[in-house]
Amino acid sequence: MPRTALTLSDKVKLIKLKETQNLSTNELITRFKCGKTQVYDAIKNKENIMDEWVNSKNSGKSKRVKTPSFEQIDEKLYEWFVSVRSKNLPISGPIIQTEAIKLAEKMNVKDFKASNETVVEWKQKISRLIAGYEAKDVYNADETGLFFRGIPTKSLVQKSESCSGGKKAKDRLTVLMCGSMAGEIRKPLVIGKSKKPRCFKNMDISSLPVIWKFNKKAWMTTELMEQ
């Protein structure tokens, strides 16, 4: 189903339907033919949206709310970051800044400056983002590569002993862990290369203590993340 960008009028209607009829997120997505993020953003920012609606009515102008260009750069930059890290290549802050500037030029976004935010600034930003939410509704998720056949790359040896390394095992899974601020741990997501590996023979995959997904590279994809 094609997704459309919500107008200011659409967002006001969405907010009113949520408040008067308590429609679910999926019902709102179907009715307005938009993405889940747009629904969440409209509900979260309802006060600002209603203020903007009143101001636009008073001025006699109707405005269309567009996604900020800087957010589009963030999305493209994250896709690039995931792709590079999946190849186990090192990334530093200056490298990310350089890539962000390249993306801005490519997307013809003016007045863009690649920021170098500190941990302190991010802590302040997170505090603002989660203000008004209960701890049980605030989650953090992160993914990592798991080389499940890997062995230690360093070893203690005798002074007279020579130590040579063997071939590194490159069999890899992707694991996504997610937990709430209140301490609730969601079932981990594990991504492999096979729909049903041999070790799962005669086993009900749905009974595993993890959610099993697969693709040919065992990578996180946009489709899997949306699911």
**Sheet with most strands:** 4 strands, mixed
* SSE order, one letter for each helix or strand: HHHHHHHEEEEH
Spatial sequence of strands, sheet with the most strands:
1-2-3-4
Which regions contain 5 or more consecutive residues with pLDDT less than 50? 61-68
Describe the structure concisely.
The chain is α+β, with helices and mostly antiparallel strands and 227 residues long. The chain has helices spanning 8-21, 25-32, 36-44, 46-59, 69-86, 93-106, 119-129, 222-226; strands at residues 139-146, 173-180, 189-192, 211-214.
Topology readout:
Blueprint: H1 8-21, H2 25-32, H3 36-44, H4 46-59, H5 69-86, H6 93-106, H7 119-129, E1 139-146, E2 173-180, E3 189-192, E4 211-214, H8 222-226
Parallel strand pairs: 3-4
Antiparallel strand pairs: 1-2, 2-3
Q: Descriptors for this entry?
A:
single chain, 227 residues, alpha+beta, four-stranded mixed beta sheet, 4 strands, 41% helix, 11% strand, globular
